[in-house]
Structure formats: C-alpha cells, structure tokens
C-alpha cells in the first residue's frame, strides 16, 4: 500500500474487537496503530466477562461448601474474605492486560495509551496533541453503562465500580432485569448481601425462554433475592451515615448500603469527532454499519458494542477477524453471521440458550414440538438442595429440525457450547435420538427427550 499515510489501519479502542482486528490486520502485513484510553483488553478483560466470571466462581463456593456437608465433609470455621478475592481477580486482570499488550507488540502493532478522536479526513488526533493519518480507521470503542436520569443518580455505582468495592454491602439494590443485574444479584447474594433487584417492567431477561426465566426467578426467590417489578427510580438520597435512602415508584422509601444500576449499555461515541467526517449514527447512538462493518464513510469501519448489534465478546472478536481478513487479507470480503448466536447468563444457577424460544418458534413456524426435561441434578439430590434444572428443545414439526435449546442448571453454558454446534448445523431431533447418552451426566437429558 502507498505510504501517503502514517498507518494502513488506525484502530480506536483496544477491546475484544479492536485487539483482534489490529493483530490480524498486522499479520496480513498492514502497518497498524491502536489507541486505548483506559486499559488494553477492553471491557471483557478489564471489567466485564473475565473478572465477572471469576467472581461467579468465588461466589458459588458459598453453596458448594454448604453442600459439602451432605457428602461427608466437615468444614470448620469457614469464612469469606472479599478483599482477598477482589485482589486475586484484579491481579489476574493485570496479568491478562499484559498478555494482550504483548500480543499486539509481538505483531508490531503500535499501542498508544491515550484518547483518540477523528479530526479530519483520514486524520486522528491523540490526547497528547500528536496527529497521525491512516488509510483506514476502525472504530471499536465499545459501550459504557447507561445511568437513568433521576435525582441523586450521582450516588449509584455501575458494574465498573462493583469489582473494586471496599466491602461487600449488607443491603444492595440492583436496578435492571438483564444480564448484568441477574449475574451480580447472584454474586452478591452468595456473598451474604441482602439483594433487591428492581426492574421497570414485570419480567427479567427479556429475550430468553419464558419457562427458563420463570425457573431462575423461582430459584432466586428461594435463595432470598427480593424482586420489585414495575419499579423505577424516583430519587436516591445519601444519608449522614453513608447509606442511601431510595424511593422507587410504587414502593415505600427503603435504605440500602449500595445502589447499582445495570440498565443497559450505550455506544461510546462522545468525543470521537464522528461529525467531523459525517459518520452516521442511529437513534441510540450506535454507529450504523452494513454486514461488512462498513460505515457510510468509505474508509471508516466500526464493530463490536459501538455498533449495538449483539453486545457479546465472541461476536466482537468475529467482527474484528472478518474486517481484518476482508480488508487486508487475500480473501473475498465476508460478513459475520449474526444468526443463532449462543449465549449464557452466569446466574446461580446459570442459563444458556441458542436459537428460537418457544414463543418465537410458535410465532414464526407453522407447527412446533417442544421437548422438556425438568429434573433435580444428582448432586442436588444428595445435597438436599431443592433446586431443579430445566432443559427445553424446540423442534420444527415439519422438518424435525431443532430450532432452539434452552437450559437452566449447573454448568448449562458449558453443555450448551457443544449443543449449539448441532443447532447451528441444522441437526434434527432424530440426530440427537441416535446419539448414545453419557451416563450419569446432566447433559444426557439432551439425547433422552421423549
Ligand atoms: C459486567 C459485564 C459482563 C459481561 N459479561 C460478558 C460475558 O460473560 N460474555 C460475553 O460474551 N460478553 C460479556 N460482556 C460484554 C462484552 O464485554 C462486550 O460485548 C465486549 O467487550 C465488546 O467488545 P468491544 O471491542 O466492542 O468493546 P470494548 O471491549 O468495550 O473495548 C472498547 C475499548 O475502547 C476504549 N475507548 C473508547 N473510546 C476511546 C477513544 N476515544 N480513544 C481510545 N480508546 C477508547 C475503551 O477504553 C475500551 O477499552 C459483559 C459486559 C459487562 C459490562
Ligand atoms: N453473560 C453475558 O454474556 C453478558 C453479561 C453481562 C453483559 N452482557 C452484555 O452487556 C449488555 C449490557 O448488559 P445489561 O445487563 O446492562 O443490559 P440488558 O440489555 O441485558 O438489560 C438492561 C435492563 O435494564 C432495564 N432498563 C433499560 N433502561 C432502563 C431505564 N431507563 N430505567 C430502568 N431500567 C431500564 C431493561 O428493562 C433491562 O432489564 C447486554 O446486553 C449483554 O449483551 C453479556
């Protein structure tokens, strides 16, 4: 490529999508620089999937240690040290951040640890004032927590701060009914907080299968999590002792030690200079792209959460790979297939899903067969834990093709990853029936549906 620009590619944001795109573009021979204003690794590594999953592991010991008694173990003097877990998690996050940085430099990607904004055609200005030019610009700036507008919202925290708390709150209110709210409700509940989850609608986890959502609600209530539905913030007031007085619609004033909002995430486009070159954004601030992650400006691409297609790390990574291969590789440009993306909620117990819910299938397909296994895992039986798993398979009656699988129960995300291959490949219920079970497992229920 001609050297009229400083770089062939300038990536803004070194998160899941930006790191993959930069590394692969460099491997294809491009001269690449990436700007990161916070920490290399982005949301997933620094304050998302990775530290969250570590907290989920740490939290679940509360149940495992309890259940251990029924298996003959005596555990005396058990106690939990939040600071020890928090610091162990942060140490590993720092280790991973270093590895991501190393991967980039091993591929000769220049990493600039500062804010970047577009200031002209093919031109980027860094916080330090340095100006660089690039043939292509990739916007991979992710998203940030959305905080609703109400009096006293400066007193709330988001998932960003939840990883760094000084102590586990005695009483925590979590607003929202999505992934983050349900995952952190589970985490804090296992750590012994009194958790109240408040949502503005009357459901949780919209988009997941109704019976699976109901099962999580029922199990969470049994574990002591309290739910307030149709509840929005009126105000939050800080009291002299540091606690928070909260008024939600339809509720009396309540006192909490921490209020966390998990009410969705908004694309990071502020201060990016998109207007300078006329990059088009949608109503929610998302950068509008086509299936190849191209914006309306021919040399500007965008991918990951900032495009608000599917806000998941593996999707951002695939979009980064497809962009780099298509623009800098020797392949025909190709697009990421956003259909049939498996997902999980790391609640206690976790949920996992792929494909259509029963409701979606009934609305879109003519005739649908639903197979269901509602069972108490062997470990829960011995432990005396009255917690049932639910697996559902949704089948197109006309073709016998499996169009969806939905699960709640221990290790559901681990089991789902393999099952999702079968659904994506278009396998039939008969294919599952023809597969011999692995006994005794929970996963065998998937090939034993009657
Ligand atoms: C609490 C939490 C838990 C999650 N758990 C999961 C999970 O279990 N599984 C899953 O698949 N997904 C999960 N996600 C979602 C996942 O983290 C995101 O989908 C993913 O990180 C998106 O990648 P990205 O590359 O689009 O953006 P990001 O990873 O957010 O990276 C964007 C980067 O750009 C930087 N940046 C922004 N603006 C600028 C600028 N102007 N100049 C320089 N740098 C800039 C930011 O600092 C950031 O590092 C979770 C998210 C959260 C918040
Ligand atoms: N396990 C995972 O894969 C995982 C985990 C965490 C986050 N994520 C990703 O991050 C994204 C953000 O997570 P999230 O939980 O913040 O969002 P979400 O979209 O899952 O849920 C947002 C919730 O906030 C509520 N809400 C929205 N606006 C509101 C308002 N003004 N007032 C009150 N409530 C409001 C919604 O009703 C909904 O229940 C998710 O969409 C997901 O893609 C994934």
Radius of gyration, in Å, reads 24 Å
Structural class by secondary-structure content: alpha/beta
Q: Give the count of structural domains.
A: 3
CATH class of the largest domain: Alpha Beta
The pLDDT mean sits at: 97
Q: Low-confidence stretches at least 5 residues in length (pLDDT < 50)? A: none
Q: What is the CATH topology descriptor of the largest domain?
A: FAD/NAD(P)-binding domain
Q: Helical segment tally? A: 13
Question: Could you name the key traits of this structure?
Answer:
single chain, 450 residues, alpha/beta, FAD/NAD(P)-binding domain, Enolase-like, domain 1, 3 domains, 7-stranded mixed beta sheet, 5-stranded antiparallel beta sheet, 13 helices, 21 strands, 23% strand, binds flavin-adenine dinucleotide, binds nicotinamide-adenine-dinucleotide
Compose a concise summary of this entry.
NAD(+) binds at residues 176-183, 264, 305. Helix content is 32%, strand content 23%.
Kindly describe this structure.
The N and C termini lie far apart (60 Å). The protein contains 13 helices and 21 strands. It is an alpha/beta fold. The strands form 5 sheets. Strands 1, 2, 3, 4, 5, 6 and 16 form a 7-stranded mixed beta sheet that branches. Helix content is 32%, strand content 23%. The model has no long low-confidence stretch (mean pLDDT 97). The chain has 3 domains: 7-144 and 266-328, FAD/NAD(P)-binding domain (3-Layer(bba) Sandwich); 153-263, 3-Layer(bba) Sandwich (FAD/NAD(P)-binding domain), CATH 3.50.50.60; 349-447, Enolase-like, domain 1. Helix 3 runs antiparallel to helix 4 and helix 3 (49-68) packs parallel to helix 6 (179-190). Nicotinamide-adenine-dinucleotide (NAD) is lined by residues 148, 175-181, 183, 199-201, 232, 262-265, 311-312, 343-346. Residues 12-18, 35-38, 42-44, 48-49, 52, 115-117, 140-142, 159, 180, 268, 272, 304-306, 311-314, 316 line the site of flavin-adenine dinucleotide (FAD).
